[in-house]
Fold:
Amino acid sequence: MKTLNDEMGRLAEEITERIGRFLPSEDGYQKTVAEAMKYSVLNGGKRVRPILMLLTYRALGGPAAEETSLVDPFLAAIEMIHSYSLVHDDLPAMDNDRFRRGKLTTHAKYGHAMGILAGDGLLNAAFEAALSAEESDNTRGRTIPALRVLAEKAGVYGMVGGQSVDVEKTGEPMTEQELDFVYRLKTGALLQASMQVGAVLAGADEKTVKEMGEIALRVGLAFQIQDDILDIASTTEALGKPVGSDEKNHKTTYVTLYGMRASKEAVENLSDEALTMLAKYPGGQRGEPLAELIASLVGRTV
Structure:
């Protein structure tokens, strides 16, 4: 009998192959940046965001026949955006990390300047990939609304906005309100984009799309708080990246504000809320993998 980890591993491998088709070819004078982009995206990772998108699409009744032409471009786009954010986050001007997923970070392998360019290239490639879905969506009008969600959640009113406050407050204490803002945008926004884009592409109504965003926001908060916990309680070997980065960079986290016990309780409460909200959507067997994935994300140990 397959376990959830087995199934998620299989999905991650499948999605990795799908994503690879949207990356630039490694030839021409720009082959080094193309190679760095490929390294950044395909260098391990659980593919959490594209898997969330795909399972949401399936849970809400998205047609299987349209997955490849309509959903695959957005699976690639969300992972490219996530990857570019990690490439830039690892740079010396940000967290200055040399290892991620047990391997050298992009700037450590290709140099600082090429790391910046690889991130820039991935952001552009993400929207090139997403726009390719328009070719198979010329009558239903789902591509542009999905693109609007993706752009907003990746930008100043989403991930970039959260990251900017996180950077600005490095070395300074954050208030509860500031930390909540950072967590909702820096981590929560792309998870919201994943589930909301999946819902839009499945043809869900506006109310359902909004509720998927509320579910994803709770998952994102729980996910980030769990990350704070692991940064203290786990090991570099287990995580594949340095632990203690938050303390090294003098960052306020949920654990430093509220303590370990309250942090663990928050993860549990937020995940319970998310799963209760999701349970309103029956979905049958198509919806079960999504619920199982959410439960595993917030309870992870790596």
